[in-house]
Amino acid sequence: MVRLARRARPGALRRLALLLVLPALLTGCGFFTASLFPGYLAQAEASFDLGPRVDDFLSGQDYPWHSEVFVLRSAAGSDYGAVRISIDNLPDRLLLLVDRDRRVQQLSSQSLGRLHLRDANNDFVVGQFRFAPDALASAFFAGGIIGDYLGFSDGISNYLLWTDGSMNLWFTEYALDWTAVNTRSAQIDTGGGFELRGVFYDPGAAVGKEVVLVFFNYQINRVYVLLTPAAGYAGTFLTPLLSNYPHLELEDMDASNVLYTRKGIVVADWDGRSILKDFNGEDTGKGLDLGHNKEVRIAFDLEGDNFFAFNAEDRVLYRGKTGW
Amino acid sequence: MVKASGRWPVLPFILLCLGAGVRAPALPACVFRAVDLSPTQEYSEYQHILTGMLQAELGNAGFQVLPDSAWDPLRERRGLDDVDLLEGGKALEVAAEAGARLAVTGFYRVEDRQFVLAIKCYDVEARAFIQGVLKTGRLNLAMYNLLDGAVKELLPRVRLIGKAPPPPGPVSAEQVTLLSPDEGTEILLAGSQPVGSIRDGALLLPPIPFPLGSAITVEKRKEGFHPSRESLLLEKPVQEFRLRPLRPQTRWGTELNWTVGQVLGLGVAQRYYFQPDVSFAAAELYNYLQTNFADSHPLVHHDFRLLYGGYLFTGPDDVFRLGWSTGAGVILTWFTIPDQGLYADWYLNLINATFELNYRRWLLYLRGEGKYALGLGRNLLGQGWLSLTRGPSPFTVGFMWKW
């Protein structure tokens, strides 16, 4: 009888260990959070199915449509997530507003321009409509408001801002009742090609940096994030603005996806990810994955603690925490 | 004779080649005259042709052809005619007395232009018949080809006469034992000749004289296992070989796997091999959580898919194997926040490429996956190739137990 002995193979154990370690080596830091699914979904605290309302609004037409998301904060400090829907070649607009109590308000009109702010009366203003935060259905038309401009309110006056494609920023000061007080301009830079793409007002920001403007210069394909003093809109600015006030320059960036929070500036990269940069333009390493295959519009509260993300394909609005 | 030489222009070359292979000292050969058994004397000239040919070719093959004078007197002294030498015993007596090692006799007969030729060769020392040829044909010029063919048939055996015997001592493997853990395995030599089965862990090969320094190939066969071949180098007269264990034929495989991008989870899969270890179908379920840890409300995903797969370039015996699979599946997603129903992302798993470490009862694998989301129904991923939000396409490491 011949006995056959089996021996353990140490090589097999080494190969096994290598196989187990290999994935971590290949993927690095994102090993535990990388996913096939957009990361913001796992950050969501609440979701709002806006599908029926959006579909009703869009029914009967085949033109492309677009969505925009923004956050309105009431005087009481409550944030409302807003989705504005517009349709190519048609004047109709739809505004959907969701609150902490999961209520959804809606208004459709041709006068719902891109303007959105809380005015000096603590009313919300979207386009040419003014309304109390919980009374969108009772919104009233304010003909004096130019609803396609951008603006802010410092609590005393209201301001609408626009550019004319050259080198100047124009702004009109409005009284509490939205009667125009005066219109002035400030030179942005020595060259032209500036378009105003975003206005953010942060009363909690450092003095002199309360109003954040986002410009896109189409001549040099560059985005500027300019921190300006609220007092300048009622008084005077040092001009040109880019030479006298702190700003960031961002290249190769979609200006419509450049957003302000107190934690920094959020920009979109080309891999479906929103990245938080500090005010020096340095990447903080924080961000939010929005996914590759679906159009997702996003907005943040002033603190950068919460987000609203609208998945345009699914017509679902998510509210969640950024974790920043 | 002139005619004959003209008909066989290649003959000198052939004879030269044959002669070149002979290195031993020339052995004496007695080529008796070919006997004409024809009913008439009309064809007696062939006696000289045939005899001359045999003498010439044996001479070229390295033999020392004895002249007629060396054996003819001995024949006469015994009172024998040429035809009597066609009897092997008498031819051997005369050749032995003449001191030859090889004796060659022959006759021919021509009748109605039909030619019959017979030649015989004898080992004088062994007093043994070596080889004979019998040829028939028409009496025409092709007859010379007939003669040539007859001589060529004889020469290979004739040249063995006088070769040195093999050197003394063991030059062959005397005892070869095969050891194997696979009881009952049938062993075949050269893939065809059964030589026995493994009993009590061993098989003693029958005494077949394998030369030392050579390699033998054994094939192992057992029901339920993959046949396998091994080449064994014989180095010692008595030698044992430990055969590699046979690979069981796998019909079922149960997997545990883990995918990058789905790290908070685990997958299970079941394979069925249509052809053992060659082609399979698999059903796979992977359950995992998606969370960003801080302020997260995790999502729960269930990825179910059906795959069909096989292997490239490699066989069941190989430790490293390259595999492929393809199929389709769906990822079901639940939210842990209210008011979100079930989402289903249907996808085509167009191609998976697998690298396997393959052992007898289990294997480890690393699998790259190419998934294409279809964007059907209520889904989260939309339509397009699936990749990690940060990083490459997902890949999987797995363990499979074979049974």
List the helices and strands and how they pair.
The complex is a heterodimer of chains A (324) and B (403).
Chain A: H1 10-27, E1 44-49, H2 51-58, E2 65-73, E3 79-87, E4 93-98, E5 104-109, E6 116-118, E7 124-126, E8 129-131, E9 140-141, E10 150-153, E11 158-163, E12 168-174, E13 180-187, E14 194-201, E15 211-217, E16 222-228, H3 231-234, H4 241-244, E17 247-251, E18 259-261, E19 264-268, E20 273-277, E21 283-289, E22 296-300, E23 306-311, E24 316-321
Antiparallel strand pairs in A: 1-24, 2-3, 3-4, 4-5, 6-7, 7-8, 8-9, 10-11, 11-12, 12-13, 14-15, 15-16, 16-17, 18-19, 19-20, 20-21, 22-23, 23-24
Chain B: H1 2-7, H2 11-20, E1 28-31, E2 35-36, H3 45-60, E3 64-65, H4 68-77, H5 88-98, E4 102-111, E5 114-123, E6 128-138, H6 142-158, E7 172-173, E8 175-179, E9 186-189, E10 193-197, E11 202-204, E12 210-211, E13 215-221, E14 228-233, E15 238-242, E16 252-259, E17 264-275, E18 279-290, E19 299-312, E20 320-335, E21 343-358, E22 362-374, E23 383-385, E24 395-402
Parallel strand pairs in B: 1-3, 1-4, 2-4, 8-15
Antiparallel strand pairs in B: 4-5, 5-6, 7-12, 8-11, 9-10, 9-13, 13-14, 16-17, 16-24, 17-18, 18-19, 19-20, 20-21, 21-22, 22-23, 22-24
Helix pairs in contact in B: 4-5
Summarize the structure.
The complex is a heterodimer of chains A (324) and B (403). Chain A is mainly β. Helices cover 10% and strands 42% of the residues of chain A.
Describe this structure in words.
The complex is a heterodimer of chains A (324) and B (403). Helix content of chain A is 10%, strand content 42%. Chain A is mainly beta and 324 residues long. In chain A, strands 1-24-23-22 form a 4-stranded antiparallel beta sheet, with no helix packed on it. Chain A has a 4-stranded antiparallel beta sheet with strand order 2-3-4-5, with helices on one face. In chain A, strand 18 (259-261) and strand 19 form a beta hairpin. The longest helix of chain A is centred in the N-terminal third of the chain and has 18 residues, at 10-27. Chain A starts with 9 loop residues before the first helix and ends with a strand. With 403 residues, chain B is of the alpha+beta class. Helix content of chain B is 17%, strand content 45%. In chain B, the strands form 5 sheets. In chain B, strands 16-17-18-19-20-21-22-24 form an 8-stranded antiparallel beta barrel. In chain B, strand 5 (114-123) and strand 6 (128-138) form a beta hairpin. In chain B, helix 4 packs across helix 5. The model of chain B is unreliable at 1-23 (pLDDT under 50).
